[in-house]
Design brief:
Elements: E1 18-21, E2 24-27, H1 31-43, E3 57-61, H2 67-75, E4 80-84, H3 88-98, E5 104-107, E6 110-112, E7 116-121, E8 129-130, E9 144-150, E10 161-164, H4 170-177, E11 186-194, H5 201-210, E12 214-219, E13 236-245
Parallel strand pairs: 3-4, 3-10, 4-5, 6-9, 10-11
Antiparallel strand pairs: 1-2, 7-8, 7-9, 11-13, 12-13
Length: 247
Amino acid sequence: MRNDSPPRIPDKMSSSGSIETPHGVFFCDTLASFRGLYKAYFQDEAYRFDVDSEKPFIIDGGANIGVGSRYFKHLHPDAEIIAFEPDDKIFGLLEKNMGHHSGFTARKMALWSSDGTLSFNAVGGEGGHLASVTAEDKPQNSPVEVQTFRLRNLLDRKVDLLKLDIEGAELEVLRDCQDRLHNVERLFVEHHCFVGQMQRLGEFFGILEAAGFRVHLRIDASSPQPFMRRTLYNGKDSWLNIFAFRE
């Protein structure tokens, strides 16, 4: 008999940092961050999509430890995936979690509007960010230099799914890519806003609208009484999950 119930969310991590799941072993930074990722991808299947191509092209920007890339390979085994993750420790977990999947390439780089190097504040699996995208005077950790990659250079062909969870760099990247977004069939972007930073939501949604996308919004973390106080997490007071697609 077929079991259509969603997979159980793991609740235990070994001393080596590995977690047994119905979809194999994962290595993670923290159990809490892994559980959130596993729930979104494998239990809720929030990023599920159908495609006519047998070999869809997927860009996983801000791949973290690779739960998303693993899910996309589970969903579309022959997919071509390029994943970007600049955090050195998290990148090592990404490589371990993806193993030797064919058609998968991992780059220890941050997506940006140009190729080069920038300062990066690493905070582990909770989401490091480029120092230039925050308004903070004192970073949580000592910044390190990371390589940056200009996303626009990959958008000269059809992209079946572009995922951008790049912790505040999304507007800068989309600005630079806006005349090539017509090549993107589906876009997931997590819009972040750091405390003290302008939100620029009008410009952000204007880029998506001009590119011909229809959007569906989800609030990642809400504040029960936003006029009184806002929920703060990792230096941010605003998170929007945006699913953009073509009808």
